[in-house]
Amino acid sequence: MSPAALAASLSLSNNRTIALPSLRLVHLSDIHIWKFTFSPARLANKRLFGVAALMANRARKFRLERLAGVVERVLELRPDHVLITGDLTTTSLPAEFQEAREALAPLLTDPGRATIIPGNHDRYTGGAVRDRLFEQTFGPFAGAGEYPWLRRLGESTAILALDPTRAALTARGLLPENQLTAARSLWQSEKDAIHRLIVACHYPLDAPAAFRDELHPKRMLNAGAVAGWLATVGPHLYCCGHVHRAWAFTPPSVPNQLCLNAGAPLLRDRSGTNPPGFLEIVLDESDVAAIHHYWDDEAWRSRELATARGFFRNEADVDRESAQWLQSNS
Question: Tens digits of per-residue pLDDT, 190-228?
Fold first, then answer.
């Protein structure tokens, strides 16, 4: 086959080499709306421990009065899509869900431009799970009623959502085996049409070395199995929360992943080393940039966490570039 014919063949056979539009996402997590409750019936379960922790610590750590400023800052960025990876509430009280929905309303005017998944605090009690409080409040911003699901952002970008949350006495998560199996099948059936994959899951699979001890007591118990599968799916972003630290890193066990943790936007940072905020994620064709927007008690600042040029390049892109080179040199 001549170089020109080879180039034409490669171009015609490659269905994935399409122009990828720029996409600006805002990634929020771990907002932790909280409400005190003194109802004996509601305190007669795990929530008793949550309210005790709230009184002792969380009410001082999470400053609800700053949420309006966070929403205003997000709107200033004019994102194409908002992704919230869980823990909108603290003890999954109906009043917490209602306040979260109302406070975030300016970001949620179009269900097609916002995606929300639950965190472990949104499944805090068996009653909250049974009554499907999260789904009642934020169901319109999910891709489906049951997990996993895949939601398209345009023709070639998609969010794949996983839910390892559960009502348990500890903060550890577990992705059910049937959900992992379904996720594998879902990706297998859709992968040819998706060039840029974003996995949304409240639990990180791993953490940067400085934060692994913080993750360990509240880890996803079968993170290794999930990581083993994701290591086979090609380049992807993994948007998470749970550990209240903003980061961008590649886990050693998933070398094709850029793991992005948004941190906690209402956290009070007394140390000056963990400023509260959220992430702006810019996708420009195959390039990725992650910017941390944070509040330093005086003003909003921003810092670049990661720039990954050509991150979403795949074999099809290499074939296209080879074809173009052959055409220009034939």
Answer: 999 999 999 999 999 999 999 999 999 999 999 999 999
Question: In the sheet that 277-284 helps form, which strands lie side by side, from edge to edge?
Answer: 114-117, 81-85, 23-28, 277-284, 287-295, 300-308
Burial 27-50 (b: 16+ CB within 10 A, else e): bbbbbbbbbebeeeebbeebbeeb
Four-CA torsion 60, 65, 67, 68, nearest 10 degrees: -170
Tell me the domain boundaries of the chain.
Answer: 1-16+314-330, 17-312
> Domain spanning 17-312 has what CATH number?
3.60.21.10
Query: Cα dihedral sign for 52, 58, 60, 62?
Result: negative
Q: For the whole model, what pTM was predicted?
A: 0.88
- Give me the amino acid identity at 75: L
Outline where 107-207 has alpha helix (H).
Answer: 126-130, 133-138, 177-190
Host H or E run for residue 239: strand 236-240
Average confidence (pLDDT) over 128-134: 95
